[in-house]
Amino acid sequence: MFTTPLVIATLVAATLGAAIGFLISHRATRPIIARLRAELADAVWQLTHDPLTGLHNRKGLRTIHTATAASAEPRQIVALLIDLDLFKEINDAHSHNAGDDLLKATADRIGQLAKLHGGHAARLSGDEFAAIMPLGATRLARIAEQFTAVIAEPIDVRADSGPVTVAITASLGIAVASSTDPLEGVALHHADLAMYHAKKQGGNRHVFHQPGMTMPGNRPRRGSRLRDRRRDQNGSGE
Question: Where is the composition biased (Basic and acidic residues) (predicted)?
């Protein structure tokens, strides 16, 4: 079949037009795709992180533990349950803004220390935090001392009357478990029992979980702040 220059030119023009149209359409959809990806990433972050402190929430810590258990041979991990001592008194004395500043600064310190030891930290609720990390060469007593010392360092917060410096201590419960053990049923549960013993002994200390350990009598009362409980009930955090 004989092809004239006019036919060839027509075919080339049609091909170029289709290619240009595709490129224009592709470029036009790039911002939409980028926005959808950003919105999806933000939604995932909201599901797994605490909005106040930026740490993982309970669901986020659970996800990390599940991935750890599935990605390698069973190994020992360290679970820390951290409860701030007398947080309510500081929160009530200096306003909720001061309390939020204190929680955010404390969370940052806990998160950095957990990362230093190859682990992850979470805010479970109120003034209660947790961390999980692989059992390494560092002595557990040394790790506990680092957490209690760093948390106790003074923090500048915003009170109703202006800037003020406060200091707070923490009660730590520490447990060693297998990475394949249930996170909340074993690792955090054992650490929680030990934490209550630390709290009962006056706080500002750590206690290691021992086999057969049970909840101490007349356990100190603690719990999340009312607005945290309301937020959790509304489904904005876990």
Answer: 225-238
